[in-house]
Write a structure and sequence with these properties.
With 476 residues, the chain is α/β, with parallel strands linked by helices. Helix content is 40%, strand content 20%. Bound molecules: 2-acetamido-2-deoxy-beta-D-glucopyranose (2 copies).
Length: 476
Amino acid sequence: MIVKSVAVLVLSVLIGYIVYKNQISDSTEVEQEIISSWSESISLPNNQFRKLLVGINSNVDLIVPGVELLLQLNITPGDDFNHDQLFTLDHLQETFSHFFKKGSAAERAFMDADLFRKIVSEAEKLSNPQFYIGGNAALIGNKIALEFPKVELHLVGPVGPKLLELLPKSITIPKMSHIPKDEVHLIMEYQVEESWGNHTAPVATRFITSFDESNSKATMIESFFQYSKNVNPDLIILSGLHLLEGQSPDFFNQKLLFIQNELVKIPNTTPVHLELASMANQKFVKAIADQIVSKVSSLGLNEQEITFLSHAAKGPHSDYFENIQGQPEIHKISDIILWVLKTHGYSKESPSRKLTRVHFHCLTYHIIGIHSSAWRNNPSAVGAGTRVAGVQACDVESPDPDLVTLKFPQQFKLFSGDKERTFNESQPIMTWKKDGFHFALSPVLVCKQPLKTVGLGDSISATGLMFSEFVTDFHR
Ligand SMILES: *[C@@H]1O[C@H](CO)[C@@H](O)[C@H](O)[C@H]1NC(C)=O
Ligand SMILES: *[C@@H]1O[C@H](CO)[C@@H](O)[C@H](O)[C@H]1NC(C)=O
């Protein structure tokens, strides 16, 4: 009898729970509650960064309808083939078709400067060419200049006349950044069910190509470090190293060595943040991990990059990179962050290493792991970064519960060996300590119909930094 009534009780509690869950997931109450909790708990640090230097990749994104451009160029539909690099219009057609048919986004370097210039000038003649700010450094600079107008921001990167027009006037762009012609990245968009020859696109996405000498060879890197000595910033943000991937190993290694030497010379009181972006070459990724990561204070990356770091260096969950499906599991990512901080970060045993902060961002949540006494305001930093993700993707001024949705697991572990936890929307920002490091996690309210996804990672990292405070005497 007792067993039976206990069973009934358990069952009815369970049903009640399921009904309750369904109710809340149908409404926007959870989202509203998270937004309120954020606004109660997120605050700016006492000492904000005031003078920033950002570099070194910048360009103009030219967005056009892809099929229309191919027609304009008198390119007729034909076979598809996946070329690694594009030398001719046939290569462009074949590679475009290849990805168009699959509906996957792709980016390929164009190898013929004159031909690429011709393609761009045809693209500019189309009915509605749209020019946007592109490149991680320019996007980070733009975000900070717009959101934090009091900050003095210097941008070193290739800036042509068009990009100069697009960037906020408040950004200081030194003479050395100016180039006579913009580096243009051609973004060939297509819509779902659009057709090209006898192919139909299964989803809406884009094919990107560029001939970008300045960024692919990091031509501004010497000026960047030179200039940093002149302006004496209190935060340096560096991005664009991934673009060196197209170069020979010799060229790559030389640049990396130069960057390493320059980073070592930067005073310990000035933190350097490195923003990583997708790379395919494992050797290059490993070289960046081994030579650069311990020479910067802070690292920003997403699930592709962090799982690849662990994969390339045989860290924890090192096979996760190859079999990750859907959104990354929280405890695995946090294990890898801890490993990055221990492997490349500052410790009493390795006092010359600078890394004290890792900012991880993916579609559904972000985590910032820090050395507990090197940074302040970590929960606000991670919260502000997640808040800006949904706001920017939806292209609105402030969080709107109707436009976003929580895609966070109800049950999760914060790290391997942790107890099973249940998500509580009244406490969306979670913090914990492990092995002397401090972690903060916040879910993203994911935009249901995203309008602006370019530069999302850049905005997240920039916002997270502006809500962080570096303890300048930490290394003393
Ligand atoms: C697609 O078009 C090409 C070129 O016109 C042709 O050779 C090929 O047979 C067509 N494929 C299909 C599946 O119709
Ligand atoms: C969720 O968090 C709120 C605010 O801290 C707290 O009052 C409430 O008890 C928590 N709910 C659960 C189920 O733990």
